[in-house]
Amino acid sequence: MGVGACDCVEAGGMPCSSCCVIRNDALLEYMQYGRPFGVSVAILGGYLGVVHLLTYAALVLLARHEAR
Questions:
Q1: Where are the alpha helices (DSSP H) in 2-68?
Q2: How many CA atoms lie within 13 A of 62 on its CB side?
Q3: Is the separation of the CB atoms in 6 and 19 below 8 Å?
Q4: Could you report the per-residue pLDDT of 2-54, keeping only the tens digit for each?
Q5: Nearest CA to 2 among 20, 28, 18?
Q6: Which residues contact 16 (CB under 8 A, 6 or more apart)?
Q7: pLDDT at position 34
Q8: Chain centroid to CA 57: how far?
Q9: Who's near 6: CB < 8 A, 6+ residues apart?
Q10: In this structure, is the dihedral angle defined by the CA atoms of residues 61, 55, 38 and 29, taken in order, positive or negative?
Q11: pTM of the model
Q12: How far apart are alpha carbons 39 and 47 in whole angstroms?
């Protein structure tokens, strides 16, 4: 049986809970995502910082160009 797959079906077309097990971490496992939460927060914070600095630099350059 594959990840999240189910072979049994109750009346009405709904999967029966006794034979179906849905793994909540299946997508994370498939994508090989195993880093700790703190590392993910640091990566997102770094990305936010870089984008913020690039946007600020672009606005400063544009303002200087328009001020002429």
A1: 26-30, 37-67
A2: 6
A3: yes
A4: 455 555 555 556 556 556 677 778 888 888 888 888 999 999 999 999 999 99
A5: 20
A6: 6, 8, 9, 10
A7: 85
A8: 28
A9: 15, 16, 19, 20
A10: negative
A11: 0.55
A12: 12
Q: Name beta bridge partners: 18.
A: none
The span from the CA of 53 to the CA of 51, in Å, is 6
For tokens 């400063």, the residue is 60
Count the neighbouring beta carbons within 10 Å of the beta carbon of residue 55. Answer: 10
Tokens at 21, concatenated: 């097990």
From the list 32, 24, 31, 33, the residue with the least C-alpha distance to 3 is 24
* Beta carbons of 29 and 49 less than 8 angstroms apart: no
Q: How many residues does the chain have?
A: 68
Encoded tokens for 29: 């496992």
